[in-house]
Amino acid sequence: MTIRYRIQTSKGKVIFCGLLPYETTLIKHVTSQSQKVGDIGIRAGIFKNDSYTVYGFSSDPDFLKSSQKFKTQLNVILNTTDSIEEIIDTTKKSINKSTSRLIHNLTTLNAHNIQDIYSLIPQESVSGNMKKQISFAEDIVKKEPKETAITLLKVAKNNASMKVEFSVFKKLFDSNPELQIRKHNVHKVLMNMFYLFFPDFTDKNVKVIVGDESRHIAYFDYESIHVALYHLIENSSKYIKPNSTLKIDICNNGIHSQISMDMMSTEIKENEVEQIFLEGVSGALPTKIGKAGEGIGMYMAKKIIELNSGFITVTPYPNTLEETLGFKFQRNVFTINLPNSKQSLTKI
Hints:
5-stranded antiparallel sheet; 5-stranded mixed sheet; 13 helices; 12 strands
């Protein structure tokens, strides 16, 4: 049995309204706790206390037959309005936080793109003479081919980051995300995302070795796994030890295709192994050295991989702990497991 209802404060502020458009036009005619309104068989009622007013409408046969059942249900809604308002307020804050983060991240990435382009081709130089824009930019490309290539790679990475932001918002904040599970070549998908970050590793003089295991396949949603890989690779480029090696291996362990990322990176304490995958949590050392973000990347990666019937683990090796320039690094291995057959999708 269902009641559609509208809650408003004593001052008239609407907290929630689930009424049909036709029903909102009938509110002015509702004057008692239970009455018939309209010409299509609807029971309606109004309940009040010092803080709230609740209007209820229902076309449910049981409520149409029993005025007492209707009043009892509507009175329950009124008496739980404080809890309902709290739930609505919490949900709004969560949605607003996610939306604000999306807008902030997109604005930042767009600003980076503009800055990178104008650092190569000054804005004042192209805006002064519209007819010579192309020839001016062409001359810069000819004179600065390496700088042009670097700028284009930065812009490509920022654009990929924007796509990631949209994908996260669409996939993770949908109560029933639509996943297109298909067979993919793991090595190819990994490299499609990895090339965006090679300049970041080069800047830290990190040697990246990717095993040529191009025969392994897995079943997953391409768009969402791209997001997970983005966050994992970004995390690696941020926290890996300078002048070290990142070793990537792809293998098959039976029902999974495995991607392992083996590196010397910032220390992960024993009590942080599970915590680093929680939303809003960053490790102790990243926080200490000012490199911690909002603690959303690893949380996103784990949740997305699990949506694809896979899982991720991290294995730290405390016995490899070493200190460089006052920072502690150790060997950490991140392992991504994805189903390698349609049959294994149902076994996870």
